[in-house]
Amino acid sequence: MKRAATIAAPHEVILEAGRADRNYWADLWRYRELFEVLAWRDIAIRYKQTVIGVAWAVIRPVLTMAIFTVVFGRLAKLPSDGGAPYPLMVFAGLLPWTFFATALSDASSSLVSNANLIGKVYFPRLIVPTATVVASFVDFAISLGIMACLMAWYRFMPDWRLLLLPAFALLAVLASLGPALWITAVNVRYRDFRYVIPFLVQFGLYVSPVGFSSAVVPERWRLLYSLNPMVGVIDGFRWCLLGGHSPLSAQSVAISVVMAVAFLAIGLAQFRRLERSFADLL
Asked: Which phi-psi region, left, alpha or beta, contains residue 3 (left: φ > 0; alpha: ψ -120 to 50)?
């Protein structure tokens, strides 16, 4: 008696032992439409049913820039980078930092917010926090438009270095995605961990060169200071946007790349290790 052959349709996914491990990265591409749907849903939820809407993406960085300019520039009298106006220096640092903080905060609760979806169907869970990180690019794009307006106001035009801005934007994504995946996975198991995230974001704001220039950091602390992956990202943004008036250390950028890749590897490993238990914990 011959065994009947079973032919699966191209869109069907046959669940069997070990399949997720063997085909995980192929499934990420297979479920790319789900990634797009979740990203657009996060964008719609953020701006569609809100009182302030898109205006919040404008008010928050502008107010932060004003406060930092007064506190660090006027009261503490910290120097700017080269001949760049202090508000421009601050806002150029806020661009990647706001993206990092928004991606980290939103991704941390993404799995918990999609508990019903995760418990019903199979798909690579990595799609959920990654879609949230990508959705944070909307705020980034709005802030980039504000930066262009500020540079026009101060009559401060960038040069050829602006062409390298996408490379530092990619580095910002890598630096955000690694910690976001780790915190997201931990938050599923320990729900009270979400209360720690605002503190981590606030602490990171003051140890990153957002309201000040990296040039004020003493040389003996520079290596330890550069272990923060956002240091190279922020300095790179300023170097690109301020036309070279902001100094850029090749060592800091190299360390930031290494740290971002290391955090991404750790975050992926932690996420994949706990992924099988998500459906039971949610």
From this structure: beta
